[in-house]
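pinging the channel bc i need a second pair of eyes. not urgent but kinda urgent?? the chain im working w is below, pasted from the shared doc
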Amino acid sequence: MGFCAAVMLSMPLSGMCAMPMFGVMISGLPGAALILAMVALWAYLAWALYRLKPAGWWLTVAVFTVFMVSTILNALNLDLMEMYRAMGYPEQQIGMIERYGMFSGGSMWWLTAAIFLPMLGYMLYVKRYFQKPT
């Protein structure tokens, strides 16, 4: 989670102030604000998980579930190449992504499941360590 916070913090600093969310592209100042809010969320989750806070566990599971739904809606409603353009990727790089076709259509569903399901399984496995202090 700390790594996610650090990486996401670099996005507005590099000019990539666009973020897809629930099938809508949020860019500009609202996109930067959303990214910074997510940086704060990831930083809090990193702290809460490190401290084995039960609220951190629940919030992590909830956030990943919400983001999985958002990713599916993004895959259904957004053209991925337009999303990359809004994020400021150079046309040459977008052309390379299009040629390989890895992140298009149904492959996004599989990629989302391949990331989310093991993460959910891991979170369920470690749940026993997140107990309220006695």
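so The two ends are 27 Å apart (CA to CA). and The CA atoms of residues 10 and 74 lie 22 Å apart. — does that match what u expected or am i reading it wrong
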